[in-house]
Automatic annotation (TrEMBL):
Listed name of the protein: bis(5'-adenosyl)-triphosphatase
Function of the molecule: Hydrolyzes extracellular Ap3A into AMP and ADP, and Ap4A into AMP and ATP. Ap3A and Ap4A are diadenosine polyphosphates thought to induce proliferation of vascular smooth muscle cells. Acts as a procoagulant, mediating platelet aggregation at the site of nascent thrombus via release of ADP from Ap3A and activation of ADP receptors.
Membrane association type: Single-pass type I membrane protein
Membrane spanning residue stretches: 409-432
Catalytic activity, as annotated: P(1),P(3)-bis(5'-adenosyl) triphosphate + H2O = AMP + ADP + 2 H(+)
Organism the protein comes from: Danionella cerebrum
This enzyme's EC code(s): 3.6.1.29
């Protein structure tokens, strides 16, 4: 059996050699191409199936498409934009909602009042890490980039102003990237299709097809502009979003005034995740709300399901009401919006998509999904900067990169095992034939007919 085991050892050694092909060294920041991260707010993943996107399709045909991202709870704009750039769940980065109240400092936060670093300082966004690594970051309206987070203002940014056109936002970014080669990370935020999704509802196909065509034209403009200024194929580009959008209806209203006295609580944030501070008897408030409507789940802060990662932060209020998909919680009155988001992050209607293109990415590569917190370690890898502690996983996303062994690895394992089995079979046959010729003129007859001690030498 000696030569068989030698064969096996050689084969196993070669298999190990094939399987342990190291992934290429992570590049240092100076070698890495710049990265442009673009978010179209409220771009629900399945818009891609229902509407036509000729420019976006061209973009990912030559790159990567991830059909759905599982985003973080609550599926609102600020929590999710901060998760994309920190890799953290909302309870960990502290941007737990788009409207917040901190009871210790008595501070209030809203989209119109978002510039106090206090709200952002619990996490380090990637643009701060890029600048800490000695490079520059630029931004056009990405939430938080006009705030002095961790005492770190960005030079290449401008104050939020929704009137600044998409073309101006992009034009400024590319100008900065071309003029200053140390700009390694740029982020761009655009308000649509979120605004139209709220206004008309995602099921209004006439209105949505109009705005989604506009969004697709911006993507066409982006590609052409990058080509014209010589950045196309030179930089990595990621296009994604923060959340999706659900259709609401006046038939699906939950009126709190019908269940509870409005003087017994303070309302911090409204539908679909309603944050409540009971003023006197918390258990009474909880009890009244619990029996209010079967389409609204009521939680004491500590009782939210672990999978939501939404309890360990002082900015999360003592009582939380979560509406079922498409239901709207109001104090009283009428439906405020035809479309909304902020629902459970396991709902496909809340999920955005992701597409990527550039030298680091595979061509024509599709993935069904990954977690939006996984984008952060991927971006750190692309930029060659060390990631801060985060809730994401580079292993989940590395297959989108051209330099990573993924499908090839599975193929290599299959080929090596196949060759191993074949060679072992041939070796055994060869060894059996050889021994038969030496020790017995009729080995098969003896093997078939007898199993007495005379056969033993054959089996040694
Ligand atoms: Zn919105």
């Amino acid at each position: 059996m000696m030569h068989i085991s030698i064969y096996l050892n050689i084969l196993i050694a070669s298999a190990e050699l094939t399987l342990s092909v190291p992934t290429p060294e992570q590049k240092s920041t100076s070698d890495s191409p710049p990265l442009l991260l673009v978010s179209f707010d409220g771009f629900r993943a399945d818009y891609l199936k229902k509407y036509s996107f000729p420019n976006l399709e061209k973009f990912f045909a030559d790159g990567v498409l991830v059909h759905e991202l599982t985003n973080v709870f609550t599926t609102k704009t600020f929590p999710n934009h901060y998760s994309l750039v920190t890799g953290l769940y909302a309870e960990s980065h502290g941007m737990v909602a788009s409207i917040m109240y901190d009871s210790a400092s008595k501070k209030h936060f809203s989209i119109q009042n978002d510039s106090d670093p206090f709200w952002w300082n619990e996490a380090t966004p990637i643009w701060v890490s890029v600048e800490e690594s000695g490079f520059k970051a630029a931004s056009a309206m990405w939430p938080g980039t006009d705030v002095k987070i961790q005492n770190h203002p960005l030079n290449y940014t401008f104050d939020y102003n929704y009137r600044v056109t998409f073309q101006e936002r992009l034009g400024n970014l590319t100008q900065w990237m071309i003029a200053d080669k140390t700009v390694k990370f740029a982020s761009l935020y655009w308000e649509e299709p979120d605004r139209s999704g709220h206004l008309y509802g995602p099921e209004n196909s006439t209105a949505m097809s109009h705005v989604l065509k506009e969004v697709d034209n911006y993507i066409g403009f982006l590609v052409k502009h990058l080509f014209d200024v010589g950045l196309w194929e030179k930089i990595n580009v990621i296009i994604t979003s923060d959340h999706g959008m659900a259709q609401c209806s006046k038939e699906r209203l939950i009126k709190l005034d019908e269940c509870i006295n409005s003087s017994s609580y303070t309302l911090v944030d409204m539908s679909p995740l309603t944050a409540i501070v009971p003023l006197e008897n918390i258990s009474e408030v909880y009890k009244n709300l619990s029996s209010c409507n079967s389409h609204m789940k009521v939680y004491l802060k500590g009782n939210l399901p672990d999978r939501l990662h939404y309890k360990h932060n002082d900015r999360i209020q003592p009582v939380l009401l979560l509406a079922d998909e498409g239901w709207t919680i109001v104090k009283n009155g009428t439906l405020p919006r035809l479309g909304d988001h902020g629902y459970d992050n396991t709902l496909p209607s809340m999920h955005p998509f992701l597409a990527a293109h550039g030298p680091a990415f595979r061509k024509d590569y599709k993935m069904s999904s990954f977690n939006s917190v996984d984008l952060y370690p991927l971006m750190c890898h692309l930029l060659g900067i060390p990631p801060k502690p985060n809730n994401g996983s580079f292993a989940h996303v590395r297959c989108v990169l051209v330099n990573e062994q993924c499908g090839e690895l599975a193929l290599a394992v299959g080929v090596v095992l196949g060759v191993l089995i074949l060679l072992t079979t041939f070796s055994c046959l060869f060894w059996l034939m050889k021994n038969r010729n030496v020790s017995s003129p009729r080995p098969f007859a003896r093997l078939q007919l007898d199993d007495d001690a005379d056969d033993e030498p054959l089996l040694e």
